[in-house]
Specification:
By secondary structure, the chain is of the alpha/beta class. The chain is built from 4 helices and 13 strands. The strands form 3 sheets. Strands 6-3-2-1-7-10-12-13 form an 8-stranded mixed beta sheet. A hairpin with a 4-residue loop joins strand 12 and strand 13. Keywords: ATP-binding, Ligase, Magnesium, Metal-binding, Nucleotide-binding.
Length: 198
């Protein structure tokens, strides 16, 4: 049975999705450039040698430039591969930009697939989101992949969600399974919101 929180989340996601679709190509390109700068600085600040990230879809803040540059610098980048059972497999990013279409029509890597526990070795996780509030609560797109992944990790590294500046909200509806993030990365800033997990 649907709850009020689920309805609120659904309405908010629809509004955020619509806002993203209204962005121009120039706005998207500027955002991608800003995201790359912020993420490069974040990796530096954490001395991260191995990270997880995602391949941005057309309406998402662009991460592809960042991923390609990180791989060229010798950073190990794991990219998520969706599974029908609600878990994520991972593939190591390489210097090709070949992608395939995942379960939900989103771009996914084509390299060798590693199991769900491969992500346990990363120094930093960079994940997608629809919005994040001032306490670090993240609103995803409703499939629960990243909440499950983060919630099941024994020793979770810092987790940063990538969103547009307008998607940093005062508060978000939350459910028991929702996992907070350490911080957010937007095209203009990086904010640390909640303490890293033990």
């Amino acid at each position: 049975m649907s709850t009020d929180v689920e309805h609120e989340k659904r309405a908010l996601r629809a509004e955020l999705r619509e806002r993203r679709q209204l962005l121009s190509d120039a706005q998207r390109a500027t955002a991608a450039s800003g995201i790359r700068e912020q993420l490069d600085a974040l990796i530096e600040a954490h001395s991260a040698e191995s990270i997880s990230c995602f391949l941005s879809a057309m309406t998402e803040p662009g991460t592809r430039e960042f991923v390609a540059a990180a791989v060229q610098r010798g950073i190990r980048v794991l990219l998520p591969v969706t599974r029908a059972d609600g878990l994520l497999d991972w593939a190591v990013a390489d210097d090709t930009d070949e992608t395939s279409e995942g379960l939900f029509g989103l771009p996914e890597p084509t390299g060798e697939v590693l199991g769900p526990i491969a992500v346990n070795d990363v120094d930093l996780m960079i994940i997608p989101a629809a919005a994040v509030d001032s306490t670090g609560m993240r609103l995803g797109w409703g499939r629960g992949y990243f909440d499950k992944t983060i919630g099941s990790m024994e020793k979770c590294p810092p987790v940063y969600a990538v969103i547009y500046d307008s998607e940093v909200l005062e508060s978000l509806p939350r459910e028991v399974h929702d996992q907070p993030v350490t911080g957010i990365v937007t095209p203009t800033r990086t904010l640390t919101l909640s303490p890293s997990r033990p």
